Structure formats: C-alpha cells, structure tokens
Amino acid sequence: MDYAIILIMGRRERFQKIYNNLPLNLRLEVVLVIDGEPVTWNVIWLEVEQRTKIGERMLEKLEALKII
Questions:
Q1: Which of 9, 41, 43, 59 is 20 to 30 A away from residue 35, measured at CA?
Q2: Per the structure, how many domains does the chain have?
Q3: What is the domain extent for residue 38?
Q4: Is the dihedral of CA 49, 28, 35, 59 positive or negative?
C-alpha cells in the first residue's frame, strides 16, 4: 500500500485493515492492557465498531505502540 494513503487513513480504518488480515486464532490473543484488564483483538473490534470512548482509548494505545 502506498505510504501516502496510510497517512490519510484514520486510526479506525488502520485498525480495521489490520484486524481483517489477522488469522482467526490471533484475534483471541491479548494485545493491550487497559485499566489493568487484558484486551484481545476481538474486544477492541467490538468497542471500535460501537464507537465507544474506551474504543478510542484502545485505538490511541495501539497507535502509540505503532501497532496501527
């Protein structure tokens, strides 16, 4: 993918692109810890799709860790 296109994509779109390309078994693995609780890719997907505040925090953390 063109680097310029990646820069234009928002956090939500970058997350969805990565999530959609993950093997199903990896989606069950813990990727973050939020408020002391482990969070899997599937949980993040649910929060992002519902556009919750915690979903936005999760996206910010993924971006800070350069995962998305």
A1: 9
A2: 1
A3: 3-64
A4: negative
